[in-house]
Design goal:
By secondary structure, the chain is of the alpha/beta class. The protein is built from seven helices and 17 strands. The protein has two domains: about 230 residues, QueA-like (3-Layer(aba) Sandwich), CATH 3.40.1780.10; about 80 residues, Beta Barrel (Thrombin, subunit H), CATH 2.40.10.
């Protein structure tokens, strides 16, 4: 399979720059197992669900992982600003691989000053990537200090003034996030809140469960090879505890559907096989792959030639998803993180 097989035309005007309110007013394209397309809204998600469905959410919360600081070398503090984006956590506590701009000014042992209490030491450097050991002399955990001071790591296609906007600190967080750890939001959950979910659960007799996958910035990384089988996915940590694994096992045993709210949930459940455990996953789901845990998927609309578009093609069929996306474009659905969504049933044909 070639990268060009997963291309499609997308007018820039359809890239959502802000979420719609109320969230339930967002459009929802219902893609049936046989490829049928029905236009709905999230207010009518109940029409897509069956009694007893198990909705699974990602409980990892995105945090404000972009920081602006000043560089200190020895006793000298420079006036120029350094912008730092956390990219990957290391095995050492409070130490992260970061992207620094302008990174060329940094050298090992430089100190970055973000506030009176939050600082970081440059431990190593590889081009624009630096290894930073963070420290917080104030109260609270380092990650909480970063989150309180930083800016939200919005995707590059969402245009904001430098430093972002305060509203995104609420708009880009999910209601189900329990613990900070994601560098991008699991955006399918942005369509939900506690009240609407509770009403939906009561009306349809649903059950809910949670899994954790800490979303990395690699989710935005483009594929740079023509033969997609040669693409190496980024790695992300995921975990499923015993109680939630039991819910999934019971649903499968009773013939009830497991509905993944987001591609991160799907990738975690398929990586773990729906069983208790924790791992680092680089699973790359593409046409031809089979799904063993998830029966339906709620997700937003993804970028052309992206691994996530390939994932939905694997789930519902490539030709079906190309037709669904063409329908979405023609009917002015809003795309990407702050956009509309779709409800996908697992294709009848592998």
């Amino acid at each position: 399979m070639r990268l060009s097989d997963f291309d499609f035309a997308l007018p820039e005007a359809l890239i959502a720059q802000r979420p719609i309110y109320p969230r339930a007013a967002a459009k929802l394209l219902h893609v049936g197992a046989e490829g049928t397309l029905v236009d709905r809204t999230f207010a009518r998600l109940d029409a897509c669900l069956r009694a007893g469905d198990l909705l699974v959410f990602n409980n990892s919360q995105v945090f404000a992982s972009r920081l602006i600081g000043r560089r200190q070398r020895g006793p000298t503090v420079y006036d120029g600003k350094i912008e730092v984006t956390l990219v990957a956590e290391t095995e050492t506590p409070d130490t992260w691989i970061c992207y620094a701009k302008p990174g060329k000014k940094l050298e090992p042992n430089d100190r970055l000053l973000f506030s009176d209490s939050l600082t970081a030491i440059v431990e190593a450097k590889d081009g624009a990537d630096v290894r930073l050991a963070f420290a917080n002399s104030g109260t609270g955990a380092v990650l909480d200090a970063i989150d309180a001071l930083g800016h939200m790591p919005l995707p590059p296609y969402i245009q904001r003034p430098k430093g972002g906007e305060t509203q995104d600190r609420d708009d880009y967080r999910t209601f189900c996030g329990r613990e900070k750890g994601s560098l991008a939001a699991p955006t399918a959950s942005l369509h939900f809140d506690e009240e609407t979910l509770a009403a939906l659960v009561a009306a349809k007799g649903l059950e809910t469960a949670e899994v954790r996958l800490d979303v990395g910035l690699g989710t935005f990384a483009p594929i740079r090879v023509d033969d997609i089988s040669a693409h190496q996915m980024h790695s992300e940590s995921c975990a499923l505890d015993a109680a939630n694994a039991a819910k999934i096992a019971a649903a499968k045993a009773q013939g009830r559907r497991v509905v993944a709210v987001g591609t991160t949930v799907l990738r975690a459940l398929e990586s773990l096989g729906g069983t208790e455990g924790a791992m680092s996953t680089d699973i790359f789901l593409k046409p031809g792959d089979r799904f063993h845990v998830v029966d339906a998927l709620i997700t937003n609309f993804h970028l052309p030639q992206s691994t996530l578009f390939m994932l939905v093609c694997a789930f519902s069929g490539t030709e079906t998803m190309k037709a669904a996306y063409a329908h979405a474009v023609a009917n002015h659905y809003r795309f990407f993180s702050y956009g509309d969504g779709c409800f996908l049933e697992l294709s009848d044909t592998p």
